[in-house]
Backbone:
């Protein structure tokens, strides 16, 4: 993908594609999943044992699916609907094939563990129309009332190429991008760990913005401002400026913001198809068993209380008042739920883990979509020969507008606005129609001759994730100084390190991962938790396919001093 300000230097001599292999925990989850020996087994005496899985998002459904294949009986609890932030919705009165992605909508090829499950359930993907990507006919960058039409970055004024060069230099000089990129492509674990250990120690207390300011390449405030408003890959990143630079380096090292693809028909199909899937290789359960069949078609309702009870077991109370006790449980919801929506026993976790959850920082995020009669933006302006409308990046309220179609003669969808943090909070008091009116006004100032409203064929659909009661934010983003907290949460699945009376409840989900906000992190932490549950029941992986916990000591995340 050619982005407005590309991620970094490209390496044409690279023999291997980049994957989310590190830098914090360089473990090959894709190889683990693909191995013919499978990901582990438990003693036959434990077959049929119930394990609570709290949260029916991608992480919870992946964990439940793999536990079922091992012969355990996952009991999934879900407060809303299966999918979590893989939420695909339709438009009332419109063709049901016309959908909007309210949460995750674009996935990088480097998400190889995620791709395993996409392939497993037979889903297709297609290129996502990010700014200046090959899938995007044209892009308009509108800053300070001045618009520029472009098909490639070469069509933009020189200052944008200057900003691109500044970002590349900043990464190379301040974060050894080329060395890390090469090490990750080659899966050179010692080199990855050597580079990353130094950067974690050096940069854990640094913001994204501070990292830019410390670079000679970004001495210009104007360049930093443009970089924040237009960004790299998917749009402006100034909302990330207060976050830890380590969060941003993880994105660029793993190319998480590059070459995005969307799931044809909607991302929520992935957890829904896993829920219904009847695996051909399954232990204990008869062929034809699925998560759906084990639950009579519906997961258990919301969890309202979690406690430890005699024998170091986990007792779960749900919204109906039903109380069940389990020898093990996996919690995959956003960790703030354990502080607010769910009545929790302090004994569930060590105090340092409670602190880490309390310090979690979530990014707000809002979207609004409208259905339209056709992809009218592909019409050519008679005077200029340009597309009538383009994928749009702007400093106006809309910030990012995406144009989504499935062919010239079919109804289409516009994501009128996709925003984060303060930009998202600006929308919070407004109703869907009020939001749409403000967005159309902003776009009308960029495209004064385009009447978007006349093409709209249904009511808008919108979301503000900070206002969703079972989420309270879109995704985690660590602030400076949060590395130690993240390490505690990610390594929680290694429970032989915990006091004996604090074991049995495992954390998973993308905010437990090092790549919060990416579905790959949800999958990886689900597999970590599955390994932990398997080990708790006396199970093990095959010697030819060691799991994440088996090799943990060799690749454990950097441990910073506490004093």
Residues:
């Amino acid at each position: 993908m050619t982005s407005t300000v590309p991620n970094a230097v490209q390496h044409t001599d690279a023999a291997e594609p980049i994957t989310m292999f590190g830098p914090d925990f360089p473990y090959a989850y894709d190889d683990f999943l693909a191995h013919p020996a499978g990901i582990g087994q438990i003693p036959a005496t434990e077959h049929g044992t119930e394990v609570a899985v709290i949260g029916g998002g991608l992480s919870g459904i992946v964990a439940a699916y793999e536990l079922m294949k091992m012969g355990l009986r996952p009991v999934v609890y879900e407060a809303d609907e299966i999918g979590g932030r893989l939420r695909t919705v339709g438009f009332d009165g419109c063709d049901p094939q016309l959908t909007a992605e309210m949460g995750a909508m674009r996935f990088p090829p480097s998400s190889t563990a995620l791709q395993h499950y996409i392939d497993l359930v037979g889903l297709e993907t297609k290129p996502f129309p990010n700014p200046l990507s090959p899938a995007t006919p044209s892009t308009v960058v509108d800053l300070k009332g001045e618009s520029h039409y472009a098909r490639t970055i070469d069509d933009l004024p020189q200052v944008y190429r200057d900003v691109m060069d500044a970002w590349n230099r900043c990464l190379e000089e301040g974060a050894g991008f080329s060395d890390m990129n090469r090490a990750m492509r080659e899966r050179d674990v010692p080199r990855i760990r050597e580079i990353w250990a130094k950067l974690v120690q050096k940069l854990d207390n640094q913001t994204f913005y501070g990292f830019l300011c410390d670079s000679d390449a970004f001495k210009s405030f104007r360049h930093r401002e443009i970089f924040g408003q237009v960004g790299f890959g998917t749009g402006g990143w100034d909302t990330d400026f207060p976050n830890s630079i380590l969060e941003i380096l993880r994105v660029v090292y793993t190319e998480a913001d590059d070459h995005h693809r969307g799931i044809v028909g909607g991302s929520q199909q992935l957890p829904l198809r896993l829920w219904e899937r009847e695996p051909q290789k399954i232990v204990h359960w008869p062929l034809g068993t699925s998560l759906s069949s084990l639950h009579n078609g519906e997961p258990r309702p919301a969890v309202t209380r979690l406690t430890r009870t005699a024998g170091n077991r986990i007792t779960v109370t749900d919204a109906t008042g039903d109380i069940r006790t389990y020898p093990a449980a996996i919690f995959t919801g956003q960790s703030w739920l354990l502080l607010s929506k769910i009545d929790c026993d302090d004994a569930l976790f060590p105090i340092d883990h409670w602190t880490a959850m309390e310090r979690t920082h979530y990014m707000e995020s809002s979207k609004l979509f409208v259905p339209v009669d056709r992809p009218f933006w592909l019409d050519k302006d008679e005077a200029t020969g340009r597309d009538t409308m383009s994928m749009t990046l702007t400093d106006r309220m809309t910030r990012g507008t995406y144009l989504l179609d499935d062919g010239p003669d079919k109804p289409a969808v516009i994501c009128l606005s996709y925003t984060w943090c303060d930009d998202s909070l600006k929308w919070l008091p407004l109703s869907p129609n009020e939001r749409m009116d403000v967005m159309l006004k902003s776009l009308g100032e960029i495209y004064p001759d385009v009447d978007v409203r006349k093409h709209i064929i249904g009511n808008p659909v919108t979301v503000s994730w900070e206002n969703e009661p079972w989420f309270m934010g879109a995704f985690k983003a660590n602030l400076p100084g949060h590395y130690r907290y993240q390490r505690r949460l990610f390594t929680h699945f290694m429970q032989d390190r915990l006091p004996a009376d604090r074991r049995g409840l495992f954390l998973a989900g993308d905010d437990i991962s090092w790549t919060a906000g990416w579905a790959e992190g949800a999958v990886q932490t689900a597999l970590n938790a599955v390994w932990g549950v398997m080990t708790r029941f006396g199970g093990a992986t095959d010697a030819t396919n060691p799991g994440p916990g088996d090799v943990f000591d060799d690749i454990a995340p950097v441990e910073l001093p506490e004093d």
